[in-house]
């Protein structure tokens, strides 16, 4: 009987304004992979939102899987991967983190490594450089994460944030490297202290379900949004229009160019209707928080189906 597994990894949004490189939220958009041990590596893309990679060894998912195996002194057998994705590339929704986490889970399942969430996050962070998106995809829900100098990764995780969001997904990309390069190398002590205080207030508001307050703090970031908004066409106009349409607050999702509005639960479709046709270069999509993180299962019947 052939060995097959099905893996589902949620998308993520990071920062949420002032929670720069630390806050992550898992979203109900998914990267799904069917895995089967095979004689040779093969990747079949069964949907849009996936990179066309000529050689499997150059694929981020395969690299993450092989790195995970090597870190445990093992060799990963070749696999046939059938992949579907609802996560658009280079839009600030954690597509690369999801691919890395998926690769780690491939190795975890195929080699029966029995990795903990912390183990997976260490591998993902070594590849991503920071843990925010990967933590959300691994744990699900709302996460705050930090990489310590000694290599330890600290994570706070809860599923008890009952927020609702609408994404403004543009029809253009923004590479993370360009968004990173827009940031200053240093911040004054005054700016750093003020920006950190706003981040603390945002976290307190979210954890106490005070979403109207959270929306205010989402829009007071000093770490990255002042430098990135002008890289995203119509972003400032969207923030103003979203507020008029009822959003508590709007911020850049990750490094952009997607924007994310925090809205009252149950008003998502009304909010979208009010903005219909105003920003034709953006698709408005309601999203909820994913609360499961990674979901993986072994198919005992020898066939795995992506839903």
UniProtKB/TrEMBL annotation:
Annotated keywords: Amino-acid biosynthesis, ATP-binding, Cytoplasm, Kinase, Nucleotide-binding, Threonine biosynthesis, Transferase
Major place of residence: cytoplasm
Domain GHMP kinase N-terminal residue range list: 60-141
Pathway annotation from the record: Amino-acid biosynthesis; L-threonine biosynthesis; L-threonine from L-aspartate: step 4/5
Location(s) in or outside the cell: Cytoplasm
PROSITE patterns: GHMP_KINASES_ATP (PS00627)
GO molecular function ontology, one term from the record: homoserine kinase activity
EC number(s) per entry: 2.7.1.39
A Pfam family that the UniProt record links to this protein: GHMP_kinases_C
Keyword Repeat on entry: no
Sites where the protein binds ATP: 88-98
InterPro entries: GHMP_kinase_C_dom (IPR013750), GHMP_kinase_C_sf (IPR036554), GHMP_kinase_N_dom (IPR006204), GHMP_knse_ATP-bd_CS (IPR006203), Homoserine_kinase (IPR000870), Ribosomal_Su5_D2-typ_SF (IPR020568), Ribsml_uS5_D2-typ_fold_subgr (IPR014721)
Top-level taxon of the source organism: Bacteria
Coiled coil location: none
Domain GHMP kinase C-terminal: 202-276
Catalytic activity as recorded in UniProt: L-homoserine + ATP = O-phospho-L-homoserine + ADP + H(+)
PANTHER family recorded: HOMOSERINE KINASE, HOMOSERINE/4-DIPHOSPHOCYTIDYL-2-C-METHYL-D-ERYTHRITOL KINASE
Role noted for this protein: Catalyzes the ATP-dependent phosphorylation of L-homoserine to L-homoserine phosphate.
Family: Belongs to the GHMP kinase family. Homoserine kinase subfamily.
Protein's name in the database: Homoserine kinase
Naturally occurring in which organism (per UniProt): Psychrobacillus mangrovi
Lineage: Bacteria, Bacillati, Bacillota, Bacilli, Bacillales
